[in-house]
Amino acid sequence: MSASNQMGNRQGRSTELAVRLLTDQVRTAWSHKAVASLLQLDIMGAFDTVGHRRLLDTLQRKGFLQWVLNWTQSYLTDRSATLFFDEEESDPIRIQSGVP
């Protein structure tokens, strides 16, 4: 991908625009009976602190299909972290924000 196609951290290129462009490309592929695949990497950690409920509410307000909401909720459900420090391990801590 060339730098002119880069969306992240560029003026006038919001996350919403990136999602809309991606959605259009997927729909175009589907209309031609093709398969669309995607690999995304959150290299900069843009979603490290997003609240799960807020993310789901935002997706719903933006008109995402119910199956996308269900999948996202399932992906974020029952997440936990365990801390290790000085050879000690904490009990699991429930994670309610951040996207893995």
UniProtKB/TrEMBL annotation:
UniProt domain Reverse transcriptase: residue ranges: 4-100
Superkingdom of this protein's organism: Eukaryota
Stored InterPro entries: RT_dom (IPR000477)
Pfam entry (one): RVT_1
Name listed for the protein in its UniProt record: Reverse transcriptase domain-containing protein
Gene source species: Penicillium arizonense
